[in-house]
Amino acid sequence: MRNDIRKTWDSLSTPTVVQQLSAKRVKSTNCWIFKNHDDGLGFLMTNVHEPVKYPDLKNIDFLYVPFKILHYDGRDIELTRCLEIHLDPECDSELLTMVFDRMEDFRPDGKYSSELMIKTLNNAINLLQRPKKLPSKQEVIGAWGELVILYSLIQSSSTHTGKIRMINGWESEGRQRDIIDFRLPFFEGGTVNEIKTSTVSRDHYIHGLKQLDVPEGFENGWLTSILIRETDEFSGFTCQNIVDNIINLFSGSDEEITQQITTLEFKIGNRGIACRDSRYYFMLTNDSFRKIKMTEVPFPSGSIEIKEMEWLVDVSNLEFESFNIDLLSTSS
Known about the structure:
By secondary structure, the chain is an alpha+beta fold. The protein has eight helices and 14 strands. A five-stranded antiparallel beta sheet has the order 1-2-3-5-4, covered by helices on one side. β6 (182-184) and β7 (191-198) form a beta hairpin. α5 (137-155) packs parallel to α7 (239-249) and α6 packs parallel to α8 (254-271). The protein is elongated and about 85 Å long. The protein starts with a helix and ends in a 9-residue tail after the last strand. The mean pLDDT is 91.
């Protein structure tokens, strides 16, 4: 049965424009191969579930149909629960068939699933992907501060619903990065919190006027200034350490813990790979945290024609509220 998808593809004749398609079932599998007049590849799997998530690929289109009539060899064949894959004609069809043949190593009986097909594609993609650019230290420092605040919020929540609400308050603008780090509409009449973290001083960049603008419907707006110190693995925490500590706070039924982890992973995906960094270790000090009212943070004066600006502000001498967070577990 080795390489049957590739062999089936090679055995297909190229149809004329009038014929449109030539087709053939891949022996002993739930798959069909199609070829059009441009030698474009079509691949069809039957009796499979629709994938939960399709890979975002430039040259491959996916289509799931519950029912399909295939005109083949002078007769109509009824196919159910079909996943179709169409490759751009300019691409290497033979190479893709060889990738699909990898499924046989996982399912020698030929009963392939949509999940196995997606996994096989993703394995091929990951093999050839260039490594992602590592985040800068400054990006990691910013993520570190936000994760510490998220840890504290989840630590203060004793219920499953409360933990989910806290996680959802982080980067809360759907799939886009939010201009404000935390929006907690259920907390103290509605609270927003912008987190600024540094290892040097309490000089912080403000990336636009809206970063200090308390949204409508919220009573309180805070800028939290966090001053931390870079250290070693014996006394500090990486971003990944804090993520692990957050997960250790999750509680409830297996289903509830799964939902908490899934919600957190979604938010980390939005925030970026800096949240998973394990290169840099930082620690808190006795005076790490200062909460400053957004309305007290100075901003540049200018003419009414200026609609947006960014600036560096020193908040070290502003009135503040202090608080402490204990990260509890040690780094590993």
